[in-house]
Amino acid sequence: MSTQPEISDSGAPVGALLFLRCGKDADFAEIHSSLLAQDGVTASIPVFGEWNILLRLAAKDRENLQRFIEERIRSCKGVESFQAHYCEETWPVSGAAADGEHKAAACALLDVDTGGFTALVARFRAMAGVSEIIASDGGKKIILFLRGNSSREIRNVFGDEVRPLAGVLRIKLFNTMN
């Protein structure tokens, strides 16, 4: 498997992650459930922080993803703003973080130096707590999914293992509701 991110022209399904911010008076539960019921939505994950919902999308091609975003997300009542990240390559990680029950989960959006991209992916694949790695934005961003026994455990992974890595420029960590 290549570690250089590329958009596939193979006809294989393509994906995107959308971070959504809901308006102050929006019915969060209604937005969450109505989006989850849409064709092409593979997950709707409530998150804490700058954004309220992390939406995973899949479509047959990038054009259909873009159409979904334009037609369904922009017109969704209660969604104030969003940020889209197209999945260019995904590395599922096997092991304890990917298997079994965990009490805490998080997602992190990392700005990374593209020169060290391959080395970063290799380090993340070996890191305890990382359950999935997604490349986006031409290798300038990596989205990590983590699982652990507590939010503190996940924060410690970031403070002790991720933040000090050469090539990690900025981290935004979002705890998810289990």
Low-confidence stretches: 1-10
Order of helices and strands: EHEEHEEEHEEHE
Task: Count the E strands.
Answer: 9
How many separate structural domains? 2
User: For the record, what is the CATH homologous superfamily label of the largest domain?
Assistant: Lrp/AsnC effector binding domain/regulation of amino acid metabolism (RAM) domain
| Widest sheet, order of strands | 5-7-8-6-9
End-to-end CA span: 31 Å
Broad structural category: alpha+beta
Rg on CA atoms, Å: 16 Å
Task: Summarize the structure in words.
It is built from four helices and nine strands. The longest helix is centred in the middle third of the chain and has 12 residues, at 62-73. It folds into two domains: 14-87, Alpha-Beta Plaits (2-Layer Sandwich), CATH 3.30.70; 89-175, Lrp/AsnC effector binding domain/regulation of amino acid metabolism (RAM) domain (Alpha-Beta Plaits). It is an alpha+beta fold and 178 residues long. 30% of the residues are buried. Strand 7 and strand 8 (141-148) form a beta hairpin. The strands form two sheets. A five-stranded antiparallel sheet has the order 5-7-8-6-9. It has a four-stranded antiparallel sheet with strand order 2-3-1-4.
Please provide a brief summary of the model.
The chain has four helices and nine strands; from the N terminus they run E-H-E-E-H-E-E-E-H-E-E-H-E. It folds into two domains: 14-87, Alpha-Beta Plaits, CATH 3.30.70; 89-175, 2-Layer Sandwich (Alpha-Beta Plaits). The protein starts with 13 loop residues before the first strand and ends with a strand.
